Amino acid sequence: MTDLIPAATTLAAAATGHGFLSPTGVEIAFVLVGLATLGAAFVTVTTKQLVHAALWLVVALGGIAVEYLLLTAEFIAWVQVLIYLGSVVVLLLFGLMLTKAPIGRSPDADSNNRWVALGVALVAAASLVWVVVDAFRTTWIDLDGPAQGSTKVSGEILFQHWVLPFEALSVLLLAALIGAIVLSRKDTAAGGTDDDTNTKGQQR
Amino acid sequence: MNDVLDVALRLIVVFAVFLVLPLVVGQTEHKVMAHMQGRLGPMYAGGFHGWAQLVADGVKFAQKEDIVPAGADRRIFQLAPAVALLPYLLVLVAVPIGPGEGAVGQVIDAGLFFVLAVMGVGVLGSLMAGWASANKFSLLGGLRTAAQLLAYELPMLLAAASVAMAAGTVSLPGIVDAFQWWWLPWQITGALVFFTAGLAELQRPPFDMPVADSEIIFGAYTEYTGLRFALFLLAEYAGIVVLCALTTVLFLGGWHGPIAEGWIWTLLKTAVLAFVVIWLRVSYPRLREDQLQKLAWTMLIPLALAQIALTGIVKVAIS
Hints:
The complex is a heterodimer.
Chain A: H1 4-16, H2 25-46, H3 50-70, H4 74-99, H5 114-135, H6 151-160, H7 163-191, H8 196-203
Chain B: H1 2-36, H2 53-63, H3 74-94, H4 111-121, H5 123-132, H6 136-167, H7 172-178, H8 183-186, H9 188-201, H10 213-216, H11 226-251, H12 263-283, H13 289-318
Helix pairs in contact in B: 1-3, 1-11, 1-12, 2-11, 3-4, 3-5, 3-11, 5-6, 6-7, 6-9, 6-13, 9-11, 9-13, 11-12
């Protein structure tokens, strides 16, 4: 997730650096929100407090939603809020609280993979930035014109030009869903009992 | 300048509604519950049938000392009530109460997505409160809140998607504009699923397992006192207003009525639904945690999916 955030900010940088010496208010707002998002993302991965990290992730993901809004992609922005803020982060917090979420620092939260993770993040960010910059080099969104990211436009583009990738993605998600069901049912079938507490006892 | 004035005026009106309607619902709850249980309820504050009881309660809350437990995560503990309350204020901005541009705080293109998305964020407040209180009961309450939200968000979204399919738009005024009377029998399953799931998201009885007083005191809000506690209560009642208004707008035709269309119908239907919410509180026992999850996954989601299929079939048949 953090990979997306540098990409968003560099997109902002690319947009303002596109030749206009006097950036408009929206462009300034875009860059500022981008910087805030980047900051929140940075704190997310550096803070020593697990739940704080999840909450900073909320700020970062919300920042991206604001960026979408500023790019007039209203529909995508609300979907971002719905899926990431409303569901993914809640799931994350649920998982944290269910397992280990001490108040205060958790020194054992750091793993030795820090530098590898940094490398992966940088490479992913670089490739995303490269793709975005290369794809939208000369594109310019007319913010004063009719909305280009409205629900109607997004829907038409998605279900006319991008139907195949959309369907492929849904098959992928379905496969993941079935996989999750299979994984979660395995123990019950092997243990030969439907009693939930019983299987949990066996696992321990 | 005129535009700025217009926006400011609308926001002030929405804010006033946000402050007044939840209190009206709260006071109605006092009285309706009392009469359903064969007693009178608050009778002294303000003179006439204790109308000022909630104002008095508010004054009491404001006077109380604001305590943060020693072991708590201070900042998150203090921030949580705001996170719980603000989403409902934002949602209210997008809910249309009458025909035309004048009767909605702000027309939002993807209004349906906006309200559902922002309403989902409110639960983060309960989670933050549950975790930051450094109290086992609070943590359990927070966990139950999260589990409940994850279970009931899906049927709610599916039911709302059914209406969006029927209307062919995700704009809230657009949905009400497209409403016909026969949508009521057509979308009735979706309406019931939406309302039930909404009740569960608000943690209202009979879905109040996360705040079950006989087991975990008051769940995520156990450690709160004074104004911050009042804010959580206000969030609950604002949530009732928002849920009832949304059900009205999506499923009951908003401002359409048998005679003379207008905002009065929206308010009337919302009020009736709010009464039903209170009624349910006094008439149903609390669902157990497993019953609660079972209801969502084995009843509401299949029902919502069936409603979507029905909507699709009818939609194709009439077009």
